[in-house]
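Bench log. Compound arrived from synthesis this morning; before running ITC I wanted a structural hypothesis for how farnesyl diphosphate sits in the protein. Inputs:
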Amino acid sequence: MIWKSFENIIEPHTPEAERLARIDPERIPRHVAVIMDGNGRWAAARDLPRIEGHRAGAESVKEITETSVRLGVRYLTLYAFSVENWKRPQTEVNDLMRLLRRYVQEDLPTLMKHKIRLQALGRLNELDYKTRVLVEKAIHSSRDNTGLQLNIALNYSGRAELVDAMRALGRQCAGGELNPQMIDEADIDRHLYTAGIPEPDLLIRTSGEYRLSNFLLWQMAYTEFYFSPVLWPDFRKIHYFEAVIDFQQRERRFGGVKKA
Ligand code: FPP
């Protein structure tokens, strides 16, 4: 069944076809999260300005999103801009925001065609007005789509997300609606930006860095991590297939013991 969804784009007997054949269609990760790293180094290696790396990275976003749809992944969460990224030079921040605006405008028809539901995770209220409006519009237009849910982490930080959740819970306690003694994990889950979204099964980080960088700290308690040396602008479906194959070889016990 997976092969069928790739037959128009993958030639038989190629390295891609060989990898695809090794994927078990019954054990596709439901939620894949990605730290898209290495755009700057990709550009530097070519003597190009950093924005060219981000631009090339946007092409990888498209390929990995499309591949997720074809594989039957249900949720794809991409770390596009962290709270810490405001520390970059203003020109780079502006360029990234421009790229994002262009993506949500120009690619909305493609998202709609593939029934992709767009969602944003992060403090959207701190984005500039133009960017926020365009992102919210795309989210609104795609809200009834029933295919892949594409979450873009935007002005996101795992700690800030937990702070926001604690504030909301604190307000409920102060208002007498909630007894602090009764707060449980489900209450915290419900107040995260990811409320209602299952936890990631697989995290992919590109460019040979081995860090979590404040991404989905609460949600990744039992996520399988896969680190790829490939820079994000070079990350193609063959690399994604390799990550899924690796994931399928892991034994997930969630703190329990191996089933007999
Ligand atoms: C990390 O590379 C990448 C980012 C901070 C931004 C990711 C953004 C994109 C891929 C652009 C498009 C996004 C969407 C959703 C359309 P880096 O700059 O930290 O690279 P470096 O570590 O090599 O310097």
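What the model suggests: The chain has a mean pLDDT of 96. Strands lie at 31-35, 75-82, 117-121, 149-156, 202-205, 224-227.
ITC booked for Thursday regardless.
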